[in-house]
Design goal:
Blueprint: H1 2-49, H2 62-71, E1 101-104, H3 107-110, H4 120-128, E2 132-134, H5 142-151, E3 159-164, H6 168-171, H7 178-181, E4 191-195, E5 198-202, H8 209-217, H9 219-222, H10 243-252, H11 254-260, H12 278-295, E6 299-304, H13 308-317, H14 323-331, E7 336-338, H15 339-346, H16 349-353, H17 370-386
Parallel strand pairs: 1-2, 1-3, 3-6, 6-7
Antiparallel strand pairs: 4-5
Helix pairs in contact: 1-10, 4-17, 5-12, 12-14
């Protein structure tokens, strides 16, 4: 009898061990399958479609690095220091001098991907009958655009326009553009921070090849004011095993979550309570722009561009993602024009997409094409005439 009981106990123990081994094996196989799915999702779906959310160590070619360090502008980053602050060619008024308006901003102000004659600066020049100088530079943040204006002491135009593309709020809390796009290796930039209630400029921290190499290998030490450090709360994620961890870190990113919800990836940064203080910093830069503009005896205007997603939200759901910026500019008595309103009166969502340069990979994203530039010029022209602007 005792032998039978002992045998039953041993059998139960062996059965329990077998079940444990089975459950453990099942768990491990399931985990391996989940890891495989995560790997495929990252490498074959997310990386090709959203490369800016992933970090790879930048590939540095020494000759290009040396050239960059020799010619880069230590104040604004780019274009090259030797290059004077000159306007984009304005075919309607090819000779410099006597400008009635000057423009500062990023590629949407410059008019990337269209000919000089099609850029809205030239179209507006034709409409007004005077030269509209275009000092926009691709990839700029509002900080760089303001610094470009501040160093351009020869600007004597009557009206100065500062263009703000919504993504500029992200750029305004960034020190190294490569962390945002994963493409432009030689793209160091300044940024502003708050020192108490005052805005303080943080210059580009790297001036030598040794410092550049150190910075790319030790970004936490090199960029103390960078919001988008690799593998940080807001920064790009390094694609490596375990890929389940990569997915988890992606889902922690506000920009990635906003994109998944169909919202603009920059929308969270427009919150007044966002820890990056991107909105507050951008408004403070606009305030400095306005003060400098008036001290030079010039009028000033801030314009806010729409994007495909922000326009769709506003047109179809009456949700304006850029509203917090407009409200803050108004509170500080800074003249501004949010182009979302005028665009909504004139066109529908699909029509907006037709005003952008076609992209083979992403729909309804990109710069304005010739038609989009013409519409921006028309809106600005009507606004200026309505407010009594005369050359």
């Amino acid at each position: 009898m005792k032998d039978a009981i002992v045998e039953d106990v041993e059998a139960n123990q062996q059965s329990g061990k077998a079940r444990g081994v089975f459950f453990l094996a099942t768990f491990m196989v399931g985990l391996a399958l989940m890891e495989l799915v995560a790997f495929c999702a990252v490498e074959f779906v997310l990386l090709p479609r959203a490369p800016a959310f992933f970090f790879h160590q930048p590939r540095i070619i020494e000759s290009e690095l040396q050239h960059y360090l020799e010619v880069h502008d230590p104040l604004v980053g780019w274009p090259a220091l030797a290059e004077k602050v000159i306007s984009r060619p304005i075919p309607a008024f090819p000779e410099e001098g006597g400008e009635c308006i000057s423009l500062y901003g990023d590629s949407f102000t410059f008019g990337d991907e269209v000919e000089d004659a099609e850029a809205w600066s030239n179209v507006l020049s034709t409409q007004l009958g005077c030269r509209v100088a275009n000092y926009g530079v691709g990839g700029y943040g509002t900080d760089q655009a303001f610094l470009r204006y501040s160093k351009n002491g020869k600007d004597r135009s009557r009206l100065v326009i500062l263009g703000i593309f919504p993504e500029n709020l992200i750029r305004n809390v960034n020190q190294y553009r490569y962390f945002l796009d994963g493409v432009t290796v030689f793209s160091l930039k300044p940024r502003f921070i708050f020192d108490g209630d005052r805005l303080k400029l943080v210059n580009i921290p790297i001036q030598t090849a040794e410092e550049f190499h150190f910075a790319t290998n030790h970004p936490v030490s090199a960029f103390p004011y960078e919001v988008f450090l690799p593998d940080s709360w807001n920064g790009p994620v390094t694609p490596s095993f375990p890929y389940l961890g990569v997915i988890t870190r992606l889902l922690m990113s506000e920009r990635f979550r906003d994109g998944l919800r169909g919202h603009p990836s920059w929308e969270s940064f427009f919150r007044e309570d966002h820890p990056s203080h991107a909105l507050r910093i951008t408004v403070a830069i606009a305030h400095q722009f306005s003060d400098l503009c008036r001290s030079r005896g010039q009028e000033c205007l801030v314009i806010i561009y729409p994007t495909g997603r922000s326009f769709k939200q506003f047109k179809e759901y009456d949700h304006l993602a850029t509203r917090p910026l407009g409200e803050e500019l108004e509170r500080h008595a800074i003249p501004y024009l949010d182009l979302h309103y005028a665009f909504r009166k004139r066109i529908g969502t699909e029509e907006f997409c037709g005003l952008l340069v076609e992209s083979p990979s992403v729909r309804c994203m990109g710069h304005f094409n010739a038609g989009g530039n013409r519409l921006v010029a028309d809106i600005l022209y009507q606004h200026l005439v309505l407010h009594g602007f005369r050359h």
